[in-house]
Amino acid sequence: MAKRVYQVWKGSNKFLFGGRLIFGPDARSLLVTISLIVVPVVIFCVFVARHLLHRFAAYDAGYAILIVAIAFTIYVLVLLLLTSSRDPGIIPRNSHPPEEEFTYDTSAQSPWGGTRPTPSLQFPRSKEVIVNGMPVKIKYCDTCMLYRPPRCSHCSICNNCVERFDHHCPWVGQCIGLRNYRYFFFFVSSSTLLCIYVFSMCALYIKFLMDEDYPTVWKAMRHSPASVVLMIYCFVSLWFVGGLTGFHSYLISTNQTTYENFRYRADNRPNVYNRGCVNNFLEVFCTKVKPSRNKFRALVQEEQPVPPPMVRSREPESESPSEPRSKVEDDLEIGGELLKISRRRDSTEIDEELGGRSSNGMHNEAELASGLEMQHPSSRPDERDASWGRRSGSWEISPDNLAKNAN
After folding, report:
1. Exposed (0-12), middle (13-18) or buried (19+): which is 8, by Cβ within 10 Å?
2. DSSP 18-76
3. What is the DSSP string of 224-248?
4. How far apart are CA 81 and CA 34, in angstroms?
5. CA distance 186 to 79
6. How many C-beta atoms surround the C-beta of residue 149 within 10 A?
7. Which of 19, 42, 205, 337 could be stapled to 6 by a disulfide with Cβ–Cβ 3.0 to 4.6 Å?
8. What is the rounded CA–CA span in Å between residue 337 and residue 138?
9. pLDDT value at position 41?
10. What is the C-alpha separation between 112 and 300, in angstroms, rounded?
11. Do 83 and 187 touch, CB atoms closer than 8 A?
12. What is the model's pTM?
C-alpha cells in the first residue's frame, strides 16, 4: 500500500489528523502553554468576574467583563494553534545534491605528491545571489541537500530548512518562519493585552472592596486572595510577553528576524531587506500568506529502481579451442617455474625448492613438463644447447649454437 508524505517524513515533526496538522518535536510543551493561559482565566471568571456581574447594573456591563475575558481567551488559543499547527515554511528536501553544481578540479594534489591522474569532484559550499541589488551569500545544507534561499536556516530541533527562519519557540512547540510569523506576533501581543485586562479587572475589584466594607488595601486583599495571585501572575507574565511584543515590533519595523539580529548584530552589515518602517509592517501583516511547499497528504511516488548495467560475457565460440588455451597457459606457467629453478646457482637450493612440494605435485609438474616438450619439440634442443657450456654466473653461448642459428 502506498504511503503518504507525512508517514515517511524525514524531519522531527509530529503529525495529527492524517497529516493535516504539523507540530514540532516538542509539541508537548504546547499543553503547558495552554494551561498557563486557561487556568488563570478560569480563576478570574470564578473568583473575580462573577462578583462584577452586578456592579454595573445600569447597562449590565458586568456581563461584558465576563464575556470579553472568555472571548479573548478563545482568540488567544486560536492564534496559538495557528502558530504551532501549521507549516512554518519548510523547504522540501532533495533526494540527491544538485548535479549542475558539480565541478572537476584537475589541479588537485595527490597525497603522495604530484598531480592526481583523475580529477577530483568539487562541490561549492556557498554561492552568492543578488537581493535588492546587493550580493547575499547562501550556503549549502548537507541534510536537505539544497542551497538555502536568502533568510533561510536549518532548524536543528525540527531538522528542517525553514524560509525566513526567525527562531524555534519552545512555548508553541514549533519553528517560527515565513508562514506563521504573523500569527506568532498576534499571539504574543494578544497575550499581552489579556494580561493587562485581567490585571486591570482584578485591581478594579479590589477598588470596589475598598469602597465598601474593606477600607484598607490589606483588608481588601485578604478578602480576595485570588485577585492578588492573579495580579502577581499577570505582572510577571507581562514582562515576558510584553517584552517579546516590543522586541518583535522593533524587528518588524527594521525587517529583521531574531536569528539575523543575534547573529549579525556585531557585523554592522547593511540590511538589504529593509524597505522602510511602513512597508516593513505592510509586508508582514498585509501580504498573502504563501501556500505550503509540502503536500503532507499526497501519496509518495516511489522512484523506479535503476536496473544494473548488463555485463555481457564473451562466450567461447566452441569448446575445442578453450581446452588448448588452458593447456597452453598451464604449460607456460610450469615452464616459467622450471626456468626459475634452472637459474638457481646452487643444487642445494633446487633440492629445497623441490623438497617443499608434495610428491603428488611433483608428479603433476613432471607430466606438465613432458606435455610442454611434446607440444614444442623444436624449441627444446635449442634451449638445451643454450645451456651447454654455461657455468655459474656465465650466460655465454657456445660457437656451435651460433653456427646452428646462422644456418
Report:
1. exposed
2. TTTEEE-TTTTHHHHHHHHHHHHHHHHHHHTGGGGTTTTTTTTHHHHHHHHHHHHHHHH
3. -HHHHHHHHHHHHHHHHHHHHHHHH
4. 10
5. 7
6. 16
7. 19
8. 65
9. 97
10. 47
11. yes
12. 0.70
10-residue stretch averages of pLDDT, the chain, 407 residues long: 89 93 93 96 94 77 90 97 95 85 60 57 80 88 92 94 95 95 97 97 92 86 93 96 96 94 80 92 94 92 57 45 48 58 52 51 50 48 43 49 51
Q: Please tell me the predicted confidence (pLDDT) of residue 395.
A: 46
Q: What single-letter amino acid sits at 135?
A: P
The amino acid occupying position 98 is P
Give the pLDDT of residue 319.
43
By the 8 A CB rule, do 3 and 300 touch? yes
The answer to whether 128 and 137 have CB atoms below 8 angstroms apart is: yes
The pLDDT value given to residue 271: 87
Q: What are phi and psi of 185, to 5 degrees?
A: -65, -40
3-state secondary structure of 119: coil
Do the beta carbons of residue 15 and residue 22 sit within 8 Å?
A: yes
Cell of 12: 522531527
The three cell numbers of residue 216 are 484598607
DSSP letter at 101?
G
Minimal CA–CA distance to 259: which of 146, 137, 138, 152?
Answer: 152
| Exposed / middle / buried, residue 34 (Cβ in 10 Å: 0-12, 13-18, 19+) | middle
- Residues taking part in catalysis: 169
| Residues in the chain, overall count | 407
Give me the pLDDT at residue 115, please: 55
What is the pLDDT at residue 230? 97
3-state secondary structure of 105: strand
**Site of grid cell 584537475:** 106
Give the list of residues 6+ apart from residue 242 with CB closer than 8 angstroms, or none.
192, 195
Residue 312: CA count within 13 A, CB half-sphere: 3
Tell me which amino acid residue 288 is.
K
How far apart are alpha carbons 177 and 167 in whole angstroms?
A: 7
Q: Where are the domains of the chain?
A: 5-90+171-285, 328-390+397-406
Residue with cell 544538485: 98
Half-sphere exposure of 167 (CA within 13 A, CB side): 17
